[in-house]
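Each record in this resource describes a single protein on a pair of labelled lines. The shape at a given residue is found from the number at the same position. The record below illustrates this layout:

***
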Amino acid sequence: MKKIAIVAGGDSGEYEISMRSGQQVENQIDRNLFDPFLIEIRGDLWHCRMEDLFLPVDKNDFSIRVNGDTMRFDVVFNAIHGSPGEDGKLQGYLDMLDIPYTSSNLMVSALTFNKSFCKSMVASYGIHTAPSVHLYKHQREDALRMLKDISLPCFVKPNCGGSSVGMTKVSHKPDLPDALDQALAEDDEVIVEEFIPGRELTCSVLRSGGGLITFPVCEIVTKKEFFDYEAKYSPDLTHEIVPAPVPEKVALKCQQISAFLYNRLNCKGIIRIDYILSKRTFCFLEINTVPGLTEASIVPKMIAAHGWSYTELVTRMIQECQ
């Protein structure tokens, strides 16, 4: 039976969500096929949770000691949102150890995690993106001058991050300095992006069985001003509609763009791509290469609408990376 290390936690503001994703994978995995072990990673502390025990992970070969014996893993199921699981660091480490994993490789993860670089790449393929400015921490004092051509309202967010942690919608220029400080508290880089009015749609893609599967498109409708961290994980604040109530040709277009980007960027595993549908134009927002897999997350709802169980998704992801 294959031994599966489900890695969760990480070093970002998404730690708690990642742990919930990992625990859900552990709960739903097919134990007739796989023997799962939940590995919590946070800074230098890597350990395996086994009942009431916390067994340290030997980082030299990503193994644990159980009853005096060394146990190694056949596959890593990556459930870390943010660093080091979504930015390529963990992938590089696992590549050196020749351990297969369920997410995109080092280069793809590093590119897609950097919102500004990823937007530039996507725009080069002819896909619309919102006007934006990419700032580094050392440019903080010159930020207002550099942002003079950005129209308000705009979004200020960490360039490398997820779950809208540190993200602010700014409608008045005097509020920009505080928004920059919030974003810079999470990352040394900031992206300031013009607000695009429209409907927020998202689509997931997975390579499985030799082909690409695009799942039903989801529309995100929130009671808050935008889809922030609180709205993402508070069911009473957000309504996620799957399939999205859009014409069939609109949903198909969203799936086609998503499949194109999955292939063009050489993604792997399950991903989710977010867009704003502004009039008839899809405006790319970002790619999530390790999307949330909690009970409240969007991807499991898409999977269910497609007719799959959560267990089938996990099984296919593991089988695809072996």
